[in-house]
Design brief:
Elements: E1 2-5, H1 10-21, E2 26-30, H2 37-47, E3 53-55, H3 61-70, E4 75-78, H4 85-90, H5 92-112, E5 117-123, H6 146-164, E6 169-175, E7 177-179, H7 198-206, E8 213-216, E9 228-229, E10 231-233, H8 234-248, E11 255-259, E12 265-266, H9 267-278, E13 284-287, E14 296-297, H10 302-308, H11 316-329
Helix pairs in contact: 1-2, 1-8, 3-5, 5-6, 7-9, 7-11, 9-11
Length: 337
């Protein structure tokens, strides 16, 4: 059985659908700090079956001990974690406690129960401000904020764990910028409070929840002066996890894999694509650069193709269409519309 921590969250819920469709038995473990029971219920409706769900916190050893006693878990996909860059700068201890201490506790319980296979949700933030693009997996690592550092620390912990005991099987998946939603429009990204990422801001502005979008900086050395990022459809990302799980028990090393499209789009290009997809105007204004933001960041995705047989297939148009379907059908996210 596969344990999916954070399986009711944005990326977790989309991945759960594909895991069920691929025939895997799973159990979800989530504390619902940034997730919704409604999302889980809608996933069950999409796949047409009940999915075991346990409410608990990865920092709570008793919760995890009970979970591993009640379920025969042989692999873990570890999504659970806090992920807001700005909040991590303001509250670093909260991020180190939740992300790093939580993962340590999870690994201790896994080890105690003889479960030594894990896929970890890492992030392109571990590359810091890269000197060149596209970014390959062997680039130097240096995070620029506590969120990124927490991801980097966890990567190091998992690498050290493997060195101490090579029977561990570890895949580190470094995400670039997840966007989009399930084609049904029933589940999607529903950030609590002010969104941390560009796409929910664009979508909420298009649907009328926000008056205007702030574009942070228009003087970068890019095609139009705005920041360029590698946006990847959440369903492509979910497919990458299923492919990783398919090989997890055959690997004899820690594998580190970028999950991106290999293409970069600027903020203004994303706004234009969303306007085309939605037929709505997205008002925006130029704001000062944010500290820590970089000009360009996109993946070299060749290694994922080589080792997983995976590559992103959904382009910017589909990303925007699927996001708009979700946002227009659920203007208030999972809250009562």
């Amino acid at each position: 059985m596969i344990l999916v921590t954070g399986g009711a969250g944005y990326i977790g819920s989309h991945t759960v659908i594909l895991l069920i469709e691929a025939g895997y038995d799973i159990v979800i473990f989530d504390n619902f700090s940034n997730a919704s029971l409604t999302a889980h219920q809608r996933v069950e409706q999409i796949v047409g079956e009940t999915i075991p769900l346990v409410k608990g916190d990865i920092r709570n050893k008793e919760d995890l001990e009970k979970l591993f006693t009640d379920y025969d878990i042989n692999s873990v996909i570890h999504f659970a974690g806090l992920k807001a860059v700005g909040e991590s700068v303001e509250q670093p201890l909260k991020y180190y406690d939740n992300n790093v201490v939580g993962t340590l506790t999870l690994c201790e319980v896994m080890q105690a129960h003889g479960c030594k296979s894990i896929i970890f949700s890492s992030s392109a933030t571990v590359y810091g401000d890269p000197e060149t693009t596209p970014i390959t997996e062997d680039f130097p690592l240096s995070a620029t904020n506590p969120y990124g550092r927490s991801k980097l620390m966890i990567e190091e912990i998992l690498r050290d764990l493997y060195v101490s005991d090579p029977t561990w099987q570890v895949i580190l998946l470094r995400y670039f910028n997840p966007v989009g939603a399930h084609i049904s429009g029933d589940i999607g990204e529903d950030p609590s409070g002010i969104p941390n990422n560009l796409m929910p801001f664009i979508a909420q502005t298009a649907v009328g929840k926000r008056e205007s979008l702030s574009v942070f900086g228009d003087d970068y050395d890019t095609i139009d002066g705005t920041g360029v990022r590698d946006y990847i459809h959440v369903m492509d990302l979910a497919e990458g996890h299923v492919k990783a799980l398919n090989i997890l028990h055959t690997i004899g090393k820690v594998m580190t894999i970028n999950l991106g499209t290999g293409k970069g789009y600027s903020v203004l290009e994303m706004i234009k694509a969303f306007e085309d997809a939605s037929g709505k105007k997205v008002p925006y204004h130029i704001a000062p650069r944010r500290a820590g933001d970089i000009a360009t960041c996109y993946a070299d995705a060749q290694y994922a193709k080589n080792v997983l047989g995976w590559s992103a297939t959904r382009g910017i148009e589909v990303m925007c269409i699927d996001t708009w379907r979700w946002q227009s059908q659920n203007p208030n996210g999972y809250k009562e519309n």
